[in-house]
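Shall we go through a protein fold together, starting from nothing but its sequence? Please make up or recall a protein chain and show it to me in full. Go ahead whenever you are ready, and we will take it from there.
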Amino acid sequence: MVGGPDLSASSDASIYLVDGSERAVLIDAGTGTAFDKVRQLIKKTNVSPAKISHLILTHCHVDHSAGIPQFRKWFGLRIIAHQRCADILEKGNDRRTGAAWYGIQLPAMNIDETFQGDDYRISVGDTELVCIYTPGHSPGSISVFLDRDGVRILFGQDIHGPILTELDSNEKLWQASLKRLLSLEADILCEGHYGIFQPRSEVTRFIESFL
């Protein structure tokens, strides 16, 4: 974890860095309000900035996405998101991104690499990341998982919701997405606001608490 409410800024969702030996990838971008702190935390991991090739955006909300322009500027990386997330960001929609709540003006943003459907696989050095479509909290929400040394790690940002009509949330889809995440039987959960859960029994308990 290289960013989040207890590490960079209270307005930031958690930002995760996955090191895949030859390459590395970030998951989510925070609000950008404490970008210098995030850069310093990345530096402390000893992962070379030149290795960071992509940033996977789990959904369009401003606490996950507003830092994208700064990450692009400093790391020259490509942004990956679900097409439904990209559609919202490319219109700069302040309501559906929640930007108005944070007092942040979110400019229209282009996403470099998008996918449709349920699954999208990304090779990051020696690691394969699987992006799965998990709508509900937002129309374009995704989750990401990887398997390493027999351990399944799930990046399930905003599993807790909230489910709000002004964000175009959908409770039925959210519940279905939670059930899909349970079926992955992850050993470690990296969540967007509540931190990291392990072992598998704790991951299951946390997800089930919202069903």
About this structure: The chain has one domain: 16-208. Residues 183 and 204 are 10 Å apart (CA to CA).
